């Protein structure tokens, strides 16, 4: 007997399911099996994860994702937590089996993450719902939320006091929360439309866009003990990201409006050197003498050797490179 032909739509659905890379456990990513150091780069303009081999300094994979990534943090040697403003959940990417799957529900709108290894805690800023989200993962997964002022963005952590600092762009404020209870301790006013925070030795380093009629060019050094700005450094236009070396001997400010990176001496809080990079640098990462800069509209990942403060490689990538994670010798 001749079987009737399968309807075209049903055939297409079965084909898509079989080739989607999804399993019953989640979405399978085709991460490379290598012992080399890898740089994972997310993109704000495409649901994409670029994989760069740092030994060869070239792209070896471009992996399609089910959503656009807003941030990523590595919580152990085998797991990365990923956020998206489009999804209701944070996602987990396991490096042993390459499975991407929902981790915990937080609500849409997460735009920045920070992981505190000592306490086993992920903090997240939700700019859509104006919330600070705390995800405790040491034992059971426990989620707590706290209302914030308008459009929370940058986060930094004070390990000496177990405190979280959160910049609220549209309310021009920086809020200070107890890391355990999420109780609001204080609200600081340092710069208009703050964006970019870094805790350093009882100081809060803050940048931002500034007032609409007069854009900001300064980095503000706020003393937590004196409760006032004690230094104000003129850098490039709109410094919005900061990173420090492992030994904390140098700080770097990323000015996305003037497409520059500034090297800062943290002892004197003075600018030492600057260098131009691609258009609209927006995210940075430091590792073993190399500063990695993603340029959101320059579509490059720039590698800067910090001793000589010179660019030694620019890697062209897909549009909108953003947050980065370095994986050391995964297998």
TrEMBL record:
Q: Supply the InterPro entries for this chain.
A: Host-pathogen_enzymatic-act, Quino_amine_DH_bsu, WD40/YVTN_repeat-like_dom_sf
State the name under which the record lists this protein: 40-residue YVTN family beta-propeller repeat-containing protein
- Tell me the lineage of the source organism: Bacteria, Bacillati, Bacillota, Bacilli, Bacillales
Annotated coiled-coil segments of the chain: none
> What is the protein's species of origin?
Salipaludibacillus aurantiacus
Q: Highest taxon of the source? A: Bacteria
